[in-house]
Amino acid sequence: MNNSFISYTAAVYLRLSKEDEDLRTVKDKKESNSIANQKALIRRALESMPNVTLYDIYIDDGYTGLNFERPSFRRMCEDIYSGKVNMVIVKDLSRLGRDYIDSGRYVRKIFPSYNVRFVSVLDHFDSLTATQSDVNLLIPVKNFVNDNYSRDISGKVRSHQEVMRENGLYIGSYVAYGYKKLGTDRNKVVPDVYAADIVRKIFDWKLKGLSSASIADKLNGLGVAAPSEYKRQLGGNYKSGFQKNRKAKWSAVAINRILRNKIYIGVLEQGKREKVNYKLNKVVEKPETEWAVKENTHEAIISKADFENVAKLLNLDTRKSPEEETLFMLSGLMFCGECGRSMVRRCNRYKDKQSVYYICATYNKGKGCSRHSIEQSVIEEILLDTIKRHIAHASKLEELLNTLKDKEINYNDVVANDKEILEKYEELEQCKRVEMALHRDLAEGVISAIEYEQFKDNFVRKCTEIEQTIKKLKEEIEIIFKEGLFANEWIKTFTKTGNITSLDRSTLLTLVEKITVYEENRIEITFKYQDEYETLCRIVELMPGNFSSLSSAEVGSNG
């Protein structure tokens, strides 16, 4: 039979993939692959085929050519299998697919088995007139080239994304709740005024003692749209794998996700996941050490101090009373001075009186240690007095620093005169002198070779410890000078609190690291920024005539 008299019902297949869209630097290539251009090119080709009738146009826009699970392609196959279509025409073989094996299977086996004519316009391939050489050589080579093209493009896109991450540019499709992409630069993020205010409220409520579940309930009660719902309200086509209900609601999980996200302190953490390879959509989690982390890439919504305090709360095993909305003021801050375990709150009621005290958790479970009982009122009284004194000391320190602004102070002078560093150097020299004496004792037969090695190991270990301490003391001073001797923002954490007259949980979490309880109602209060505070005090003490009002007793932080 003369094939020229056979009529064909054609399926026009068009595809534009994300890998084509990612080729932003190859403008002409992108435009040539556009759906409109593919359609125009094929229509011109059909004009020269009088015995071909167009059945339908099948378009997969935004689908990779590396697999064939594409909606329009599957629909076209169903029409082929049901006998509605007996011809497929594409712009080129890469539009059909870029997988070497599957593309060849369709062209060389599946289409011929259903008597389907296949035409690739730019490849000048028509199965109706193709020779065995075209089918067995041209098609495999073309498909192999297309497959390798995808591999190459995948590598280029990945490398380009890595460079953007390293430069602190945001490359995600959607930005975290509280931020939005800058209109003039989609790789920059800026606060979303409304959502940023909600994020601040979430952190504030957490610091005041609300549980994550209570915060979620509060937001739902106020009618605040959950993150995914909010994005949809703004017109975004947003889908989340975390959403279960038709209309998303706030949950404790969503709250915790926000409270743990460092984006709110100006840090971008990207590259947490990656595809197994360019052919599979499977994504695997990468270890944290391989993430792309860049600081100060955008405006922070939350202060680092508040973020760290919340992080500490999330790691604490704290519970609230069933009758209370918030956690108890001292929850998660009290620890036993003997076993190191947390202290638990106990309440005794007798008639109209109530007595609240804390005891060691280990003792409470009957697993040893001792009671370490202390009344809450006693703790609060000591805490308030000690915090007030510490704030006063910090204010005095700030005043002294302001008086030193015109002084010429440098890092080397401070290190050379630091009492603690000088004492450690003297201790190191003494240790080395003793080590040298060991050599003489060995040579004179005072000690044996075995004793010499034992003593030497001890002194070497001691010298190493002293050297590490000196290094740490120097680094503490160096950090202060790098950040600016007078730019110690952490001081404002204390001074902005002002003259407090009562305690609340937010103040405690901002200023206090932990409270350690010993026997006989003795407690030790460890303040935040303790190392920075003591280092700065040492620096101030080195300045003649400027430190007389700040005695060594005042710089202590224990109550």
What do these coordinates show?
Helices cover 47% and strands 15% of the residues. It has 20 helices and 17 strands. The protein has helices at residues 18-21, 27-32, 35-46, 71-81, 93-96, 100-113, 132-166, 193-207, 212-221, 227-233, 252-259, 304-315, 361-364, 376-403, 411-417, 419-443, 449-483, 489-495, 505-511, 530-541, and strands at 8-16, 52-61, 87-90, 117-120, 125-126, 179-182, 185-191, 268-270, 273-275, 283-285, 292-294, 334-336, 343-350, 353-360, 374-375, 512-517, 523-527. It is elongated and about 110 Å long. The N and C termini lie far apart (104 Å).
Radius of gyration: 36 Å
The overall pLDDT, averaged over residues, is 78
Counting DSSP H or I runs of 4 or more residues, the number of helices is 20
How much helix is in the residues? 40-55%
Shape estimate = elongated
Low-confidence stretches are 22-32, 546-559
Distance between the termini: 104 Å
Across the major sheet, the strand order is: 2-1-3-4-5
Oligomer: single chain
Measured by DSSP, the beta-strand proportion falls in 15-25%
Main β-sheet description: 5 strands, mixed
Number of E-state strands: 17
Classification by helices and strands: alpha/beta
Keywords:
559 residues, alpha/beta, 5-stranded mixed β-sheet, 3-stranded mixed β-sheet, elongated
Give the arrangement of secondary structure elements.
Elements lengths: L7 E9 L1 H4 L5 H6 L2 H12 L5 E10 L9 H11 L5 E4 L2 H4 L3 H14 L3 E4 L4 E2 L5 H35 L12 E4 L2 E7 L1 H15 L4 H10 L5 H7 L18 H8 L8 E3 L2 E3 L7 E3 L6 E3 L9 H12 L18 E3 L6 E8 L2 E8 H4 L9 E2 H28 L7 H7 L1 H25 L5 H35 L5 H7 L9 H7 E6 L5 E5 L2 H12 L18
Helix pairs in contact: 6-7, 8-12, 9-11, 14-18, 14-20, 16-17, 17-20
